[in-house]
Design brief:
The protein contains 6 helices and 14 strands. By secondary structure, the protein is of the alpha+beta class. The protein has a single domain, classed as Sandwich (Jelly Rolls), CATH 2.60.120.620.
Amino acid sequence: MEDIVISKQELLDNGFSVIENIYTKDEVRQILTVINTADTSKDTFRKSSGLFAIRQFLKEVPDTFELVFNARLRTVIREVMGDGFFVVKSIYFDKPEASNWYVAYHQDLTISVDKKVAIENFGPWTVKQNQFAVQPPLEVLENITTIRIHLDDTDEHNGALRVVPESHLKKIYRPETINWDEETEVSCSVKRGGLMFMKPLTLHSSGRTTNNKKRRVIHIEFSSVELPEALLWAERIDLD
């Protein structure tokens, strides 16, 4: 329990935290076995030489749900995030061994919703693979917490996230304005079966793979707030 208390405070203070040993090696293998049998022909599956991704992952590969939300994860979610949170987005990333896929520093400023409608303070809008995304008001973003479940050992040599501690406290923080004389950068290594908590306003980036090792991650976002009546979360899934 002590590691959970520490992680909760780290998430509040720094915008990220790592907790190890959420899944055993066998549990990780079970999750990957289900993923590897999924139908990859759908629009929500993205395949290229440098990346394989599944959007709306928990809906597209529903047999993973009970495997992912084991007793340990449910306890950690409840203790770190509190009650009343539900899933609002899920993505599976597979960064292959020879991947040169690089992501520059950014904040996660959009949410996935069911349709495009004109609502005050919601915008701009984008559409990706038939999925609507919009930048919501700041209070919606501040309520979201992300977990990144690592299915491989991940460090700075195969795309571990690099983050700027405390950057989530600075609201909208444009990457081009980062003052590296004041800010620090942390590489978030996570072992297979562990997870990383992160606030979406935390500045983060991902480097290229240089050690010829895979990096497979399940990215899940949670919220406890409802959207305006005309708008629904695209992937809302209650945990109970």
